[in-house]
Amino acid sequence: MLRAGIVGLPNVGKSTLFNALVANAKAEAANYPFCTIEPNVGVVSVPDERLEVLAKISSSEKIVPTRIEFVDIAGLVKGASKGEGLGNQFLANIREVDAIVQVVRCFDDPDIIHVSGSVEPIRDIEIINLELVLADFDQVEKRIDRVRKQAKNSKEAQAELTVLESLMAVLSEGKSARQVSLSEEEESLIKSLGLLTRKPIIYAANVAEDDLATGNEWVEQVRKFAETEQAKVVIISAQVEAELVDLSEEERQEFLASLDVEEGGLKSLIKATYELLGLRTYLTTGPQETRAWTITAGMKAPQAAGVIHTDFERGFIRAETVAYQDLVTLGSMNAAKEKGLVRSEGKEYIVQEGDILLFRFNV
Ligand code: GDP
Is the distance from CB of 225 to CB of 253 less than 8 angstroms? Predict the structure, then answer.
């Protein structure tokens, strides 16, 4: 399962946000009786409006959304890359995630101490990013030493060296490696390094409830910064999300309406994280369940079938396919069949976002 790590300075609202994530996940845990939850890992459903629509068409008994994991990576402080605090452990945790959500404090509250004395989101971002940059710097430096020797006799090592040097140029200015644009081929040369500052990132601007609808000056600063990295910004209010957890549906609606918003930002954050990972969703639907499955872009039908079960991949024969929009427009699978919109696809078919699939396979 894909993992996103939540990072940020102390007292920016990480735990509040993470607890809200977990509380929502627990409410749904009935769907996943066999899932064990580690204290710092929350498994959350990815909101997908299509599921409700399809479940109605198929009269499905239940809906199973696709999921991602959020890991609370506490303990990043200045000096982490030099082993301060939980430094190294912390960096190792980040190395394992597929994407980073950096919570940035964009609310003022005299009662909540700010570790650096004042609310100043860009400085905060830079403190965190610098630790990650330093860790990457060390790694790239070591790698360069090794590859330089090989580069004399190897074209591939030479190519890698060029890429490493372009990364080094940016890292040594204290900037994130994601600012370097690389071709797919170049990317593959350095993939095994697992660079922290090349992982996709979302900045979660944590605002006070009154700013949730409009944002504020701090959010604008974060946006400006994020643009330099082509990163995304999502406005959330961790505190609003924490309060929503204990409310009834009716009370939730009232509370959100009073703030002039539809949600506290958590849903947007989960969706944005999923999209950030470059994932695609295909759907299966029937009387038992309507379900979303996660694949990566470009996956072919047999591999996509393998996400459900390895037997499906091994014994793959064909996939019956209809696009979500076609099915919804026509209202039923039979109507879609009559119009010739249900196709039979073979092994080379590249599954598209929103495909509804039914696999034929040998056991
Ligand atoms: P962490 O150290 O980053 O995990 O921060 P916490 O989630 O523990 O939050 C630190 C304090 O800030 C807690 O007392 C939270 O209740 C409070 N807090 C979190 N988000 C907000 C917010 O949006 N507004 C205000 N006023 N307080 C918040």
Answer: no
**Ligand 1 midpoint to CA 225 (Å):** 23
**Is the Cβ atom of 67 under 6 angstroms away from ligand 1?**
no
Element containing residue 275 per DSSP (H, E):
helix 266-276
Atom of ligand 1 at shortest range from CA of 207: 23
Q: Which atom of ligand 1 approaches the CA of 16 most closely? A: 7
Residue bearing tokens 């190294």: 88
For the chain, give the longest Cα–Cα distance. Answer: 70
How remote is the CA of residue 115 from the centroid of ligand 1, in Å? Answer: 12
Please report which confidence band the pLDDT of residue 64 belongs to, taking 50, 70 and 90 as the band edges.
Answer: very high
Rounded Cα–Cα distance for residues 167 and 188 (Å): 14
Beta carbons within 10 angstroms of residue 185's beta carbon = 9
Nearest-angstrom CA–CA distance, 249 and 356: 31
What's the CA gap between 361 and 354, in Å, rounded? 21
pTM above 0.95, yes or no: no
Domains of the chain: 3-276 (3.40.50.300), 298-361 (3.10.20.30)
- For the chain, helix (H) and strand (E) counts, in that order, are 14, 12
ipTM of the shown complex:
0.93
Q: What is the pLDDT of residues 152-211, one digit of tens each?
A: 888 989 999 999 999 999 999 999 998 899 999 999 999 999 999 999 999 999 999 999
**Atom 8 of ligand 1, residue of closest alpha carbon:** 15
Single-letter amino acid, residue 206:
N
Give the list of residues 6+ apart from residue 81 with CB closer than 8 angstroms, or none. Answer: 87, 91, 131, 132, 134, 135, 138
Handedness of CA 207, 210, 213, 215 (dihedral sign): negative
- The kind and range of the H/E element at 160 are helix 155-171
Taking residue 1's Cβ as centre, other Cβ atoms within 10 Å add up to 11
